[in-house]
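Service request form, structural biology core

Requester: graduate student, group of Dr. S.
Request type: structure prediction, single chain
Budget code: on file
Notes: please return the result as structure tokens.

Sequence provided:
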Amino acid sequence: MEQLAIQQTLGRYAFALDHGDLVTLASVLTEDATWTVNIAGEVEQGPFVGHAAILGLVRDATEARTDQRRHNLINLVFHHADTDTAVVWAYLMLTSNAGGSVNVIATGFYTFALRHADGEWRIAKLFVGMDNAV
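Core staff response, request fulfilled:
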């Protein structure tokens, strides 16, 4: 099991979100990736399907931001893994550095479904369950 390689993929995903790096984000997603967000069990957004939809969503969110955010993935748990697929759970602690102080602006959890493709682990499906709206 290539846990370190999978963790590197998830780390690259988080850094890409934080920096609005759409090239890196595209590189960690499968072409047919899906992204679904649920906010506090009440509002569902998505699924956003494929590179164009996901990258457009991230680009719009990044351009609208006025603060520096950090997607802190913690407590990674390998729920399922074999040679070609893996499911990883992780908590999210989203922080913001606005006005010179750091604040936790949201918490939640991720479910990542990954596929091993072309020698790389890539995210095929991700679900974000936010505990609160941002």
